[in-house]
């Protein structure tokens, strides 16, 4: 393993994050605060508790997931797309590194950023609502796995995209609807029976359900399924990336 | 000298059927400067990209220091530094960081002293904390060189290092290349500027339409391909070439004042003595005699246009 290369990519990507620290840090704090003001206080006070958890507290895991997933995808896709766009990818392709090292560097950095922002949101949320974490290890595991797996997805998006428009296509047209319809702001049990069944085809449901379970012990689907879903998702992303580097798809002519 | 880089029957075809490289074979000797000359689209950049691992070859092999670039890519690639043709750099990154990145990417531990040495050599040390977007075009090109040198390559590819660079900077670049050669780095550069090859190369390769037309020592090439001309300036203009001089194939220039005689430097007999005798016999009085050797440029144009025919 070329550890120095992994460290170099990781440091380079993190430097980008720290250059824009105010933006990286303030924007999630601000948007989370707005969500709490609107959904937690203004509207949330009129919504009854969900299985003994106040609405404001109920949406915290979903809100964290929302930001973490979006940020993982955007930073990992940008991290690899930008060198492609600028042409600086020549250096990566001519360096003595393999696909695992490149992915570890880029995805590791993107996941770190997302994890950082996830923790910032969690911290912000404690100012607005009472939060309890019943299963802290499971919570950490879900959070870290989500950061990693969606950073892998972001990496694929970045390799696939051939312009900036395509970069935002997957996050906005696919991931955002899946997250909003995945039980971020509601419990699946609130839906009519037909929609409850349809919802089960949304992979994000398993993610948010598992994550919420680690907070309040509440789950829409059994926790084992949630773990299985995220493991399968991570596996699929890894498989796709392995194939990309093996064939040189969209990178090596 | 031993070959540090060996290219064997390298071919590259694209999906649309375009053959960018049609079986290029080339040995590059350790410590030399090889200039690859060729018109736009000749395959120079494809050749470099394929050797460096950016493009996958269709067939053929490349070994660097005995390591195959496909099966032993780590060992092969770590010996090579590449300075691309386009200025491709992260605009917001600082000079120092981007050079450190390159060193790390090639598996080297950070070494501030080494980086400082490189940046000083390229007159970039004062700019190390500047973001790249703040630098001039020439400075950016130096940053590309610094990045390529950061991992201490044995072979350096310079893809058109002086394209769009002013005369002074071009001379600077030549000095840098000369210094690198001194330090034992093998250099392969592509160029449009024949004067560049003429000024700094040890050997010259001419590539056109994916084929390597020739590779030769620069001096030998110029001597072999070289045609020389004698210009005989007369004191009095003449309206036509005297019949007694017809056999020499002269041309009359400069308002009838200059006779131009072209000859091959390699020929057994150049015919100069007979020409000058005949000129004197014809009663012409000489003011001046000059000789002129064809430049590499003329050789190159001859080769490439011959290839197109």
Automatic annotation (TrEMBL), chain A:
The chain crosses the membrane at residues 20-43, 55-82, 102-129, 141-163, 169-188, 200-219, 225-245. Residues 19-248 form the ABC transmembrane type-2 domain. Keywords: Cell membrane, Membrane, Transmembrane, Transmembrane helix, Transport. It is found in: Cell inner membrane; Membrane. Signal peptide: none annotated. It is a multi-pass membrane protein. PANTHER family: INNER MEMBRANE TRANSPORT PERMEASE YADH-RELATED, TRANSPORT PERMEASE PROTEIN. Belongs to the ABC-2 integral membrane protein family. This is Transport permease protein.
TrEMBL record, chain B:
Keywords: ATP-binding, Nucleotide-binding, Transport. SMART domains: AAA (SM00382). SUPFAM superfamilies: P-loop containing nucleoside triphosphate hydrolases. The keyword Nucleotide-binding applies. Residues 5-234 form the ABC transporter domain. InterPro entries: AAA+_ATPase, ABC_transporter-like_ATP-bd, ABC_transporter-like_CS, ABC_transporter_ATP-binding, P-loop_NTPase. One of its GO terms (molecular function) is ATP binding. It holds the Pfam family ABC_tran. This is ABC transporter ATP-binding protein. It comes from Ruegeria sediminis.
């Amino acid at each position: 393993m070329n550890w120095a290369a992994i460290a170099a990519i990781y440091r380079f990507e993190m430097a980008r994050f720290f250059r824009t620290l105010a933006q990286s840090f303030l924007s999630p704090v601000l948007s989370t605060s707005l969500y709490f003001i609107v959904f937690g206080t203004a509207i949330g006070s009129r919504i009854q508790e969900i299985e003994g958890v106040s609405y404001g507290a109920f949406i915290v895991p979903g809100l964290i997931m929302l930001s973490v997933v979006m940020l993982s995808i955007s930073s990992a896709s940008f991290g690899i797309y930008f060198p492609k766009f600028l042409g600086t990818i020549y250096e990566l392709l001519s360096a003595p590194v393999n696909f695992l090292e490149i992915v570890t560097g880029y995805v590791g950095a993107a996941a770190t950023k997302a994890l950082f922002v996830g923790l910032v949101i969690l911290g912000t949320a404690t100012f607005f609502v009472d939060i309890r974490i019943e299963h802290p290890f499971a919570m950490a595991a879900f959070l870290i796995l989500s950061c990693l797996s969606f950073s892998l997805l972001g990496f694929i998006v970045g390799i696939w995209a051939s312009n900036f428009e395509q970069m935002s296509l997957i996050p906005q047209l696919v991931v955002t609807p899946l997250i909003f319809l995945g039980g971020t702001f509601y419990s699946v049990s609130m839906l009519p029976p037909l929609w409850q069944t349809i919802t089960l085809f949304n992979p994000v449901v398993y993610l948010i359900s598992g994550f919420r379970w680690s907070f309040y012990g509440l789950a829409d689907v059994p926790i084992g399924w949630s773990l299985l879903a995220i493991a399968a998702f991570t596996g699929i992303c890894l498989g796709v990336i392995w194939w990309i580097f093996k064939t040189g798809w969209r990178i090596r002519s | 000298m031993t070959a540090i880089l060996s290219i064997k029957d390298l071919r590259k075809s694209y999906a649309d059927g375009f053959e960018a490289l049609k079986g290029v074979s080339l040995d590059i000797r350790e410590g030399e400067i090889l200039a690859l000359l060729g018109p736009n689209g000749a395959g120079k950049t494809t050749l470099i990209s394929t050797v460096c691992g950016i493009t996958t070859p269709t067939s053929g092999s490349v070994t660097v220091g005995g390591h195959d670039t496909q099966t032993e890519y780590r060992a092969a690639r770590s010996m090579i530094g590449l300075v691309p043709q386009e200025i491709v750099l992260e605009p917001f990154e600082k000079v120092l960081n981007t050079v450190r990145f390159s060193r790390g990417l090639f598996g080297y531990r950070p070494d501030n002293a080494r980086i400082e040495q490189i940046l000083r050599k390229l007159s970039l040390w004062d700019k190390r904390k500047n973001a790249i977007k703040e630098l001039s075009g020439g400075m950016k090109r130096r940053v590309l060189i610094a990045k390529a040198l950061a991992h201490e390559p044995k072979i350096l590819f310079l893809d058109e290092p002086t394209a769009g660079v002013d005369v002074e900077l071009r001379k600077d670049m030549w000095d840098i290349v000369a210094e690198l050669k001194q330090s034992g780095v093998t250099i392969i550069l592509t160029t449009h500027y024949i004067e560049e090859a003429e000024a700094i190369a040890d050997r010259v390769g001419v590539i056109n339409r994916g084929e390597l037309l020739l590779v030769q020592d620069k001096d030998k090439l110029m001597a072999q391909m070289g045609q020389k001309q004698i210009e005989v300036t007369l004191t009095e203009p003449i309206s036509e070439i005297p019949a007694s001089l017809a056999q020499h194939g002269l041309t009359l220039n400069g308002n009838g004042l200059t006779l131009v005689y072209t000859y091959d430097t390699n020929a057994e007999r150049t015919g100069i003595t007979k020409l000058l005798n005949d000129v004197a016999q014809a009663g012409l009085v000489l003011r001046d005699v000059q000789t002129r050797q064809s430049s590499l440029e003329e050789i190159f144009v001859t080769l490439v246009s011959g290839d197109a025919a």
